[in-house]
Write a structure and sequence with these properties.
Blueprint lengths: L1 E7 L4 H12 L3 E6 L7 H6 L7 E4 L4 E3 L1 H10 L10 H26 L10 H24 L10 H9 L1 H6 L3 H6 L1 H11 L42 H10 L14 H10 L2 H12 L5 E8 L8 H14 L7 E10 L2 E11 L4 H4 L8 E6 L4 H12 L4 E3 L2 E3 L1 E7 L1
Parallel strand pairs: 1-2
Antiparallel strand pairs: 1-3, 3-4, 5-7, 5-8, 6-7, 6-11, 9-10
Length: 406
């Protein structure tokens, strides 16, 4: 019998921990995917703050906030994951709150600006790093003396805390940091290699060798409107770059139609009446593929200009694939209620070799498009023309801003 519906999405740590808690308690909970924060009007009415996860039970229960949700799920069977004594139950709540409000809050202000998910300010990032250390030292001390955060077995506090610092290991907890915090590293490796971790993330611990460094975005001379940006770099310049940094897509050889021909057409001609018909006349699906690119964490977006800056940072980190990519990422909606999506042309049939040059590429979802389908073809045209709103469940969002990668 269904216990209720959980609103969220796979890849979001708070959603993942809620699902795992339901699984541990043996509850039949249906996940209603919100598409990375692409909230419907019905959900916005249900949860006006537009945050996830949220739970609606078949018995009338309604909960927001992850700690409340996981506690409610596990308390249905008095699960030992909540602790086995009154003191342990209190300690589990302590570490859940500590990781959520202190550790995760500071870490996000450290790593998110470095990968373009928040505006970068050197002073603020250094401050967040220092303040993160203040809280991580507390965690390290606890895990030096104990295998787990509470008692002698893994609890929901361990799972939740590990899920919240997962991205930090991926981006900023390099080899030198792990040497400084061996107990946290040991504990994180232990938790993320447990069978239940698949409910939260698709892979075990991911360790970056060296912390990601901020790379300022290139300045764009003119925002794309009636007139478009200047033509791409000259072939001589591109050949020099290729020799300096070989790219795996280079093994495919030269395409019959160089992607630069399309970039020049897009830059110098009106988009719908001239550029798009030219593209479809010359597009070769054996040499190139088309992809829809969706940002996974739309629920974390705030001001639209900051979302645009996020795209700019991502594009800057994609520069090594300039010879093999063309596309647009657009911001639709208003501040605190926006989404990022777009369409890309990729040399070859696999998106990953082109995009994994950017450290934050996994923050995006990639869906292959079939231009023989009218809806896929229209999506590409709309993303490259910048002149239509985005259809979303329950309505649409107006175009706010965008950037071209070429």
């Amino acid at each position: 019998m269904s216990f209720g519906k959980l609103y969220g999405y796979i890849g979001n740590p708070r959603t993942g921990v809620s699902l795992m808690a339901a699984k541990l308690a043996g509850l039949d909970v249906e996940l209603v995917t919100m598409g990375g924060g692409n909230f419907s009007d019905d959900y916005a009415e249900l949860v006006p703050i537009k945050k996830i996860p949220a739970f609606v039970g078949t018995d009338g229960a309604f909960l927001t906030e992850v700690i409340a949700i996981v506690t409610y799920f596990l308390s249905q069977v008095d699960s030992p994951a909540l602790g086995t004594t009154k003191l342990e139950k209190a300690e589990v709540l302590r570490w859940l709150s500590f990781s959520n409000m202190e550790v995760a809050a500071k870490l996000s202000l450290w790593w998110q600006p470095l990968v373009g998910r928040l505006p970068y300010n050197k002073k603020n990032v250094e401050k967040a790093e220092a303040e993160s250390d203040d809280y991580l030292i507390i965690l390290e001390k606890q895990l030096t003396a104990h295998t787990f955060l509470v008692g002698e077995r893994c609890t929901i506090a361990d799972v939740f805390s590990a899920a919240l610092i997962y991205r930090a290991f991926q981006y900023v907890f390099g080899a030198s940091w792990r040497a400084k915090y061996p107990a946290i590293t040991r504990w994180f490796t232990l938790i993320t290699n447990q069978p239940f971790w698949d409910t939260l993330k698709p892979a075990p611990a991911v360790f970056v060798e060296e912390a990601v460094k901020y790379t300022p975005p290139k300045k764009e001379p003119v925002k794309k409107e009636a007139k478009k940006e200047a033509p791409a770099a000259q072939p001589e310049e591109e050949e020099t770059k290729e020799k300096a940094a070989p790219h795996p897509i280079a093994a495919l050889g030269n395409a019959k139609l160089p992607i630069d021909s399309w970039k020049r057409t897009y830059s110098n001609e009106d988009t719908r009446p001239v550029a798009l018909p030219w593209f479809w006349d010359h597009f070769d699906p054996e040499e190139y593929s088309l992809w829809r690119v969706n940002y996974k964490y739309n629920d974390e977006l705030t001001l639209t200009f900051m979302s645009s800056n996020l795209i700019g940072g991502f594009f800057n980190r994609l520069s090594a694939s300039t010879k093999y990519l063309f596309g647009c990422l657009l911001v639709f909606g208003t501040s605190n209620d926006s989404v990022i999506t777009g369409a890309f042309l990729v040399r070859g049939q696999d998106y990953k070799p082109a995009f994994d040059v950017a450290p934050d590429w996994e923050s995006y979802e990639f869906i292959k498009l079939d231009p023989s389908k009218a809806e896929d073809k229209s999506f590409v045209e709309d993303m490259w023309a910048w002149d239509k709103p985005l259809a979303v469940e329950g309505g649409s969002k107006e175009f706010a801003d965008g950037k071209v990668f070429k």
